[in-house]
Every structure is written in structure tokens, then in C-alpha cells.
Specification:
The chain is mostly helical. It has 12 helices and no strands. Keywords: Fatty acid biosynthesis, Fatty acid metabolism, Iron, Lipid biosynthesis, Lipid metabolism, Metal-binding, Oxidoreductase.
């Protein structure tokens, strides 16, 4: 880590502590088992019951794809813990946050998996195989700096919130919607924590932070992008309007950039100003591409005589 970023890590400690206290005041404890319809469960063949068949699932193919992507993404928590522990450390307020965040995130995969297994929403054998492959491969974000990691998770946590929320709505199951809404609330609080730290970093080191923000927006990938079948499932999810390029731009990237007042700041020069210009040009390109995909989707729906979700 660069010396300047080590210094920034220390300088941000009071902000971390303040936002950790804010998080504790805002976050409401919840129990994963409360959100699972246990009465709908039954044994599988090993215990004398029946193994899963496709007819067991109450979910359509889009909801299955979205639920599996969301769950396998959450399953990689050990790798995510390592990523933030390496960048932020395990001492003081930073370490307290790493532990708190990890403990809260662990509830997500527990609750979603229990829901899917109890309701027989997806093939449990395929799900476990996917978990083994994805978790064994792990997640490696590369050589992100501390600032790049902060910028990345600011967007990623919000993206995950949107994905969970929209998946719940699309599922057609009130229980799933309630569960995923609860998970999305956690993700939103996590986003606020990271977003506030980046906001403080912009005031302390505007140019370096702006470079990190631009880099992460331009090179953004969801952490589950390396899971088996992700590309196909992502297309299915995007076509259904659960999470697509327009969602990413309008519901994730732009709101966070507005909060940071990126395009209003007067304290950028040199590499910081150049990075902001590159970011603006990139957002214009993404907007054009998102509009193109929207038009294609509308034409496809019109041809099928359907209406958007």
C-alpha cells in the first residue's frame, strides 16, 4: 500500500469509528430462521423422503437464475472478508468494522439457502456443486488499493441491494420478497458506511480518491462474475429487468456519484481532474449502450405481446 494511503487509513479512523457507531444505532438485529417457511419442508431421499424434481419448484426460470446468482455471490464471504481485512486491517475501528460486516453478511447466505432448500426452489445438488466450485475458486480483486476497495464496495453493496430487492419482487413469493427485502436493508446500510468513508477521503485527498473512483466505475464487475454459468444467468436477469445496465447506471452509479458531488467539486486538478473527465465520458457511453438495450428489450416484449416486469 502506498505511503499516502497508509496515512489516509490512519486519518480516516475517526470517520470509521463515527460511522461504525452510526451503523450500530441504525442496524436492527434479525434472525435468518424467522424468514424461512419451515412448514413447507420435507425430507430428501437419504432420510426416506424424495429427492428434488423440477416440478417441486414454485419459481420461474428467471427467479431461479437470480436467486442462485445472489446466493452463490453471498457464499464467497470468506474471500470478501480476506479482501477487506487485507486492505483495512484488523486493528482499531477498521478491524471492528471488518468483523461486524462479516458477521452481518453471513446471515444472507444462511437465510437464502434455507429458503431455497425448504421450498425446493432450485435443484439442491446443482446448488451445492455450484457453491463448492465458486467458493473453492474464491474471489480475488487483484491489487486494489485501499481507496479503490472503498470505492468498489460503495457501488457493489448498492448493486447487491438492488439485485436482492428486485429478485424478491420478481419471485412471486411473498416470503421470498420479505426475506430478500431484509437482506437488501443490510446491504444498504453497508453501502452507506463505505460511501461515507469515500466522501471523507475525497475531502482529505481529492485527486487520489477521484482517480480511484473513476477506475472502479470504469472497470466495475460484480464479485460473482466468475461463478459457473454467470454470463448466461446475467443475461436472463438483465432481460427480465431485475438488474441490467440501466439499473446499474441510474440506480447505483449515478446516485453514489451525486452524493459525493463528483461533478461539482472545485478541488480537483491534474490526475484527479483528468480522471473525472474520463469518468464523464464513460458514463455517456454507458448511457447510450443502456438505451440501446432498453430499446431492444421493448421490441422483444412488444413482439411477444408481453409487458415489462
Amino acid at each position: 500500500m502506498a505511503t499516502t494511503q497508509l496515512a489516509l487509513l490512519t486519518e480516516l479512523e475517526p470517520v470509521v469509528e463515527a460511522n461504525l457507531n452510526r451503523h450500530h444505532a441504525m442496524a436492527k438485529p434479525w434472525n435468518p430462521h424467522d424468514y424461512v417457511p419451515w412448514s413447507r419442508g420435507r425430507d430428501f431421499a437419504l432420510l426416506g423422503g424424495q429427492d428434488w424434481v423440477p416440478e417441486d419448484s414454485p419459481l420461474d426460470e428467471v427467479s431461479k437464475a437470480a436467486m442462485v446468482v445472489n446466493l452463490l455471490t453471498e457464499d464467497n464471504l470468506p474471500s470478501y472478508h480476506r479482501e477487506i481485512a487485507m486492505r483495512f486491517g484488523l486493528d482499531g475501528p477498521w478491524g471492528q468494522w471488518v468483523g461486524q460486516w462479516t458477521a452481518e453478511e453471513a446471515r444472507h447466505s444462511i437465510a437464502i439457502r434455507d429458503y431455497l432448500i425448504v421450498t425446493r426452489g432450485v435443484d439442491p445438488v446443482a446448488l451445492e456443486r455450484g457453491r463448492m466450485v465458486h467458493t473453492a475458486a474464491g474471489y480475488d480483486s487483484g491489487d486494489k488499493s485501499m481507496l479503490e476497495a472503498l470505492a468498489y464496495v460503495s457501488f457493489q453493496e448498492l448493486a447487491t441491494r438492488i439485485s436482492h430487492r428486485n429478485t424478491g419482487r420478481a419471485s412471486g413469493c411473498p416470503v421470498a420478497e420479505q426475506l430478500l427485502s431484509r437482506v437488501a436493508t443490510d446491504e444498504n446500510l453497508h453501502m452507506v458506511f463505505y460511501r461515507n468513508l469515500v466522501d471523507a477521503a475525497l475531502d482529505i485527498s481529492p485527486n487520489e480518491t477521484m482517480v480511484a473512483i473513476a477506475h472502479e466505475v470504469i472497470n466495475f464487475q460484480m464479485p460473482g462474475s466468475t461463478m459457473p454459468g454467470f454470463a448466461e444467468n446475467a443475461v436472463t436477469i438483465a432481460k427480465a429487468g431485475i438488474y441490467d445496465l440501466r439499473s446499474h447506471l441510474d440506480d447505483v452509479v449515478r446516485p453514489v456519484l451525486r452524493f459525493w458531488k463528483v461533478f461539482e467539486r472545485a478541488d480537483l486538478d491534474g490526475q484527479g481532474a483528468q480522471a473525472r473527465d474520463e469518468l464523464a465520458a464513460f458514463l455517456d457511453l454507458v448511457d447510450e449502450r443502456a438505451t440501446h438495450y432498453e430499446q431492444r428489450r421493448q421490441h422483444r416484449l412488444a413482439a411477444a405481446g408481453a409487458s415489462p416486469r
